[in-house]
Every structure is written in C-alpha cells, then in structure tokens.
Amino acid sequence: MSNARIRRLAPSDLPALRGLLQVYAEAFEEEALYAEAPPEDSYLETVLGTPGVIVLVAEVGDEVVGGITAYVLAKLERARSEIYLYDLAVAEPWRRKGIATRLILDLKPIAHQYGAEVIFVQADREDAPAVALYQRLGSPEEPFHFDIQVAPQRGG
C-alpha cells in the first residue's frame, strides 16, 4: 500500500488538476489531445466548483500520481442518484500499489453524501487491469456503449 494522500479538489486546486490531466494524458496515451487546446483556468475553476463534479487526486509529496473524475447523475424514477466514474488513472511508476483501489474507496463516502446507491464505471474488455480492479470492488454487467455525435463530423 502506498503512502499517497487522497483528497478532493476544489476550484482553487488548479495546479493539482493540471497534474491530474497530465496523468490522464499519459495513461490514456492521448497526450496530443490533452495538449491541443487546454482549457482556460476560469473554465476549470467553474467545473471544479460545479455541484456533482467530483475530482479526487492521489498525491505523493507535491506530485499528483493518480486520480478520479466522477459525475453525480440525479435519477428521476426515485429520489436518488448514481455516480458515474468517468476517468481513473494512476501514473505508471505508482501502479500496482493500491492507489486506484483507495481512490474508489474514498469516492464511496462522497457518493453516499450525494444519496447515491451505486457507482458505475465502464471498462473495455481488453483492459485486463481495469477489469480485474472493478471485479474486486463490484459486480459486472454487459451493457453496450454507443457514442452519439452532437455536431456533424467534418467531411461527412
């Protein structure tokens, strides 16, 4: 188990958020996407201050080594919510040290505060480490995932 400190980011935590975005860029192998048009500080402050946006980071000293981005989804069929764990990543040198598990476990009491009954997350079948992590913490379902574009794509 690592000595990483887990904490929730506030609007004033932009350096830590920028560090987390770098971890995401490297972990998801999307450095160009993250570097192409980084959001302004004011946008990130607004997002971090939005109720229902949950960003947790794992830090060792001043270094962000991992984190989670999750969203609260209010349900209509009952007065409850669900949490969608959208992004989770840990920097390569810090993997296999329990940080991802700790991040998810630290998300659970926050989810409870929002009246959530469940945290759900998507994992691609070929992402064996993610699938193994989530199987230890929850029960799998077999959904389909579709991306429905909002704006027409260029050239088509």
UniProtKB/TrEMBL annotation:
It comes from the Bacteria. Pfam families: Acetyltransf_1. Residues 4-156 form the N-acetyltransferase domain. Keywords: Acyltransferase, Transferase. SUPFAM superfamilies: Acyl-CoA N-acyltransferases (Nat). One of its GO terms (molecular function) is acyltransferase activity, transferring groups other than amino-acyl groups. PANTHER family: AMINOALKYLPHOSPHONATE N-ACETYLTRANSFERASE-RELATED-RELATED. This is N-acetyltransferase domain-containing protein. It comes from Devosia pacifica.
